[in-house]
Amino acid sequence: MRALYSAATGMMAQELNVQVISNNIANMRTTGYKRQQAHFQDLLYQTMRRAGATTSAQDTQTPSAVEIGSGVKAVSTARAMSQGNLTPTERDFDIAIRGEGFFQVNLPDGRIAYTRDGGFDLDGQGRLVTKDGYEVAPGITIPEDVQSVSISAAGHVEVTRAGAAEPEEVGRLQLVRFVNEVGLESLGDNLFGATAASGAPAEGLPNEEGFGSLQQGYLEEANVNAVTEISALISAQRAYEMNSRVISAADQMLQAASQMFRG
To answer: In what residue span(s) does the Flagellar basal body rod protein N-terminal domain sit (predicted)?
Structure first.
C-alpha cells in the first residue's frame, strides 16, 4: 500500500525538520549564528489518467488528472541571513557588523573562512585573532605599549601609545560579500566557506557602498526567535503524529483485507 511509504517519508521529513529546529534553539546564544529552515518537495507521481485525455468518440477530454504521489523529500536547510540584534560587551576587540558583509579568517591549512562572529582577541604576538586563534585578515597587529584601541565604523584601527599625543592607525579591517550568501558552506566554529553556489567573495571596506559598518564593543546575536522556533517545533510534532496515524490506518486496512482472505 502506497500510503505506508508516503507516510514514512513524511515522518522522516519531520524528523529532519525537528533536528533543524533543535539546532536553531541550541544556538540561540551563539554569536553571529544564522537560523536554518528546512525546505521540502513532493516526490514523483504515478499518473493513472492524464489531464486532457480523450474520453469519447466526440473528443471530449478529462478536465483533471488522476495522480498518486509517493511522499516528500528534503531539498535544503537554507539559512536566513537577516541581521541579528547587537549586544554591548564593553570589550575593545568585540566588533559587530551592522549590515552586509563577513570578516575574513585565515585558517591554518591555508584556506580562507568567513564569519559574522566579531568576538576577537589578541594572540601572544599582538595579532587580532578569533576565539580559536585564527588570524583575522588582512592581518592587524596591536603594539605592546598601547593605552587604548579605537575601531571606527569604517574599520580604521587606531591605537594610542603611552606618551603619544595623537592616535596612530595600525591597519584597517576589510569585509567581503557574496552574490548568494545562502550558498555558503557551514564549517562549524561560527565559520563559513565559499562554494560554487555562493559565488566568489567580493572584498570591500566597511561603510562603503554595499557593505555594512562596524560597531566596536558590540556583538551580533543569533537571529533566532524563540517563539517562532517553538511554534515550528509544535507544527513539526503534529505533522509527525499525523503521518504515524496514517501508517496505523494503512496497517488496519491491510489487516482487514487479510482477515477477509482468511474468511
So the answer is: 4-34
